[in-house]
Specification:
Elements (H helix, E strand, L loop, with lengths): L11 E7 L5 H16 L5 H18 L7 E7 L3 E8 L19 H8 L2 E6 L5 E8 L6
Antiparallel strand pairs: 1-2, 2-3, 3-5, 4-5
Helix pairs in contact: 1-2, 2-3
Length: about 140
């Protein structure tokens, strides 16, 4: 796991790299909680943990590329927390509402509900990044 303390865009950020394994998800959540505590942004912890879990689980399950790691970035913006998950797969997630009673497929609809905005972008090098922004200023977007 590697950490970078500042964001090149000018804000604070924590960048970490993870193996392509399910055990990376709870480890990443723990690092996010530590980061939010350091920033005194505990009010957004529950929603942020859920969003990170869904995005990282998707990358672990569907974005695996042999020999590559998954990167997370937690960025402190003026009134929002930005969570990014980078993977080397070109396969982009699709949001569709699962059928009633389905055990899977609820991740992106949950992210859509919890985040003020989210999206999928290209990144430098192979693959993509999936991001979500959660308000931390106490007010609606």
């Amino acid at each position: 796991m590697e950490s970078t303390p500042t964001d090149p865009r000018g804000g604070d950020a924590v960048v970490l790299r993870w193996g392509q394994a399910a055990r990376s998800v709870p480890l990443a959540r723990r690092e996010l909680r530590r980061t939010l505590e350091r920033w005194d942004w505990g009010a957004v912890e529950d929603a942020a943990s859920l969003v990170l879990s869904e995005l990282l689980t998707n990358a672990v399950r569907h974005g695996q590329v042999p020999g590559r790691e998954i990167e997370t970035r937690f960025s402190r913006m003026p009134d929002a927390l930005r969570i990014e998950v980078h993977d080397a797969s070109e396969r982009r997630p699709l949001m569709a509402l699962p059928v009633e009673g389905a055990d899977s497929g609820w991740g992106l609809p949950l992210v859509d509900t919890l985040a003020a905005k989210w999206g999928i972008d290209d990144r430098r090098g192979p693959g993509k990044l999936v991001w979500a922004e959660l308000p931390v200023g106490g007010g609606p977007w």
